[in-house]
Amino acid sequence: MTLVILWLIQDLLTVFTGGGMQIPGLFMLGVVYRLLFSDNNNDDGNLWAIWSAFAGGILWDIRWIGIPGFFTLGYVVVVLIVIQVWGIIPPQGRVSGSSLLVFILLECSQLIPPMLPVLILGGNTGWGYFLMQQVYSLPAILLTMYIYLQKARDNQV
Amino acid sequence: MDNARNNTRELVHGLTALILALFLLGVSSGLGVMKSIVDIWGAVLFIPEYPAVVMREIYLSWRSWSRDKNILSSEVSRLQNENAYLRLELAKISGGKVFSDDKNSDMNTARVTLRAPMSWWSEIRIDRGSKDNITQGLPVFSRGYLIGRVSTVSTLSSWAELITSSSFMIPAVIEETRELGVVAGDGNGSVLLRYIPAGRGVRSGMKVSTAMIGEELPPGLPIGQIAGEFNIGNDGYTTYRIEPGADLSRFYTVNY
């Protein structure tokens, strides 16, 4: 339900700005945030994240791109990266000293999805576009990271 | 053991999702049903997005007011609509095909709701459909200049093919010389006027509008002006580049 709300907020913000500025990928921030707390030992593992990202990506593509596949691909790639990278870190090491890694994983969720269409299709979208997009996303990434670290420390205590 | 099994399952599901995404990417662009799906999803999201649309309109209105340009911009917009309408009326009087039975003196406005990157120069979706008397072939304007025509109509929305589309071809006339040619897009943002015999004194700045031949669009609809020579073919005909009167890179609403 949280992910649905985040998707809608992201959509509403995009409608509100009319495409005039890049909206942070709140939906993927939510997915990655939940993945960081996810326990891989339950019955379904992290399958919810893979298919949530897939569904969210398709709906985003249909709404804003017109052709399903671009953001779907990006979202699934991000989830797989997070699962693989985060899986390497032992649970004991996921709080202390993991700020940089959390930041990188959250950053991936904002950088990869919009970049894939450009890499696939080509075009003359410059680095300035991605730089501005990251600038807009940075507050959301830092806030998510702060919330994660706070909660992770509380859980550890 | 469970952990290893889950890792394998995640990998399998992840790769399945990746393959599905790539498959969708490969096949969906050629599926005609995609437009219907996009329209349906747009209609479903219309309700939850409505507050954002209203808020955006309020914000835009406030911004315009705060700059003390609101009255001026609406007056300019009204005059442009009136100008375009008068051109259409003139076209009707001069024998052109009457394409609209609407007796309202003002042209209607529609909001552009989708301009997909894959078909940026080919088509747009507008938030008016058959319930708003939109019909296939209806010309679409921006700032009083022709920018395309309606290609597909559904109840709540329509798709319009832009003059920059490579499949868009209409007969046109250079108003100063009365030379006839064909206006066609190249799919990459340029609009060309083809099949003008070489050496007819065509110069940059001459106005181009729709021609009387052909029944798809009425004559006299302004398109733009000659921007320069594009090339001269071996067959003795010259192609000219047209500078559209409308700004095709920046329009959020259209008139019809």
> Which class of secondary structure composition applies to the elements of chain A?
mainly alpha
**Which of globular, elongated, flat, extended, rod-shaped describes the shape of chain B?**
globular
What is the strand tally of chain B?
12
CATH architecture call of chain A: Orthogonal Bundle
Proportion of residues in extended strands of chain A:
under 5%
The fraction of residues assigned to DSSP E strands of chain B is 25-35%
User: Structural class, from helix and strand content of chain B?
Assistant: alpha+beta
How does this structure look, described?
The complex is a heterodimer of chains A (157) and B (256). Chain A has 157 residues and is an all-alpha fold. Chain A has one domain: Orthogonal Bundle (Arp2/3 complex 21 kDa subunit ARPC3). Chain A has helices spanning 2-17, 26-37, 47-65, 70-88, 99-121, 127-156. Chain A is globular. Chain B has one domain (69-256): Rod shape-determining protein MreC, domain 1 (Thrombin, subunit H), CATH 2.40.10. Chain B is built from three helices and twelve strands, in the order αααββββββββββββ. In chain B, the strands form two sheets. Chain B has a six-stranded antiparallel beta sheet with strand order 3-4-5-2-1-12, with no helix packed on it. In chain B, strand 1 (109-114) and strand 2 (123-126) form a beta hairpin. The chains are: A mainly alpha (157), B alpha+beta (256). At the A-B interface, helix 1, helix 3, helix 4 and helix 5 of A face helix 1 and helix 2 of B.
